[in-house]
Amino acid sequence: MASKQRANKRKTSLTPTKKLEPRARQRAPRRAPNLEETVQITIELLEQHGETGFRLEHLMERTGISKSSIYLHFGDRDGLLAAAYGKRFEGIVVESISGLEVMLSRVHDSRTTRDALRAATAFVASGERFKHRLDRAVIIAGTRGRPEFRDALAKAQTALTDRFMLLLVTTQERGLIRLKHPPRTVAQMIQAVTFGRIIAEIEGNETLESREAWMALVDELIDNLLFDGLLND
Q: What is the CA radius of gyration of the chain?
């Protein structure tokens, strides 16, 4: 009996053990990057640290986006910054145009239309908007020698001017204004005038009288551009 047990033991020991197959490594599911969030946080980081202090590592920590995804979707660091600056530039102007669209949707004659435009101009030219004008100036200056920035800014500005031009054309079709010049030229001119307030602000010697004189001049310009023959003042 003992000899039989020893034989079975030797047989068992000679039987090759079955090797376990290695388990396939389970990778954590990758979260698709939120590109809109990436651009928005890039804007915030640029506000905090400036372009020279901006680091991709900070952005990756805040958003979870990988460097490879940044390069895949934006091309390179400059491509990402161009997207951020274009978005920031667009946001500044859209805020003003959106308010104007709301006001003009409520007017019913040329006089209330002019009042709405005066209110919009006063808002855009207010001291509280100085930082927005300064930001626009910095973004425009940053396009020099940087094609990605220039292309992003051109795209944003063209879309904004198109939107303003459409608003002017629609208002004219309602009989509320009269355009004597091409609507695109008028849209560009009004944007240039309101942005141009930055010249007085940089001088740093603004007074209530100087602001009121500025507004009076802008009002006269808009009257000539849009209301010739429509008002009896």
A: 32
Terminal-residue alpha carbon distance, the chain: 128
The DSSP string of 67-124 is HHHHHHHHSSHHHHHHHHHHHHHHHHHHHHHHHHHHHHTS--SHHHHHHHHHHHHHHH
18, part of any domain: no
Neighbours of 191 (CB within 10 A): 18
Q: By CB neighbour count within 10 A (0-12 exposed, 13-18 middle, 19+ buried), where does 176 fall?
A: buried
**DSSP, res 129:** G
Same domain, 222 and 174: yes
CA distance 118 to 29: 55
Q: How many domains does the chain have?
A: 2
Which of 75, 107, 142 is a domain's end point?
75
Candidates 48, 149, 164; CA nearest to 95 is 164
Determine the Cα–Cα distance for residues 186 and 159; give it in Å rounded to an integer: 15
Range of the domain at 59: 34-75
pLDDT tens digit string along 178-194? 999 999 999 999 999 88
Q: Identify residue 36 by its one-letter amino acid code.
A: E
pLDDT per residue over 65-94, tens digit each? Answer: 999 999 999 999 999 998 999 898 888 888
> What angle, rounded to 10 degrees, do the helices at 208-226 and 110-124 form?
140
Q: CA 82, CA 146: separation in Å to the nearest integer?
A: 9
- Looking at residue 138, the DSSP 8-state letter turns out to be H
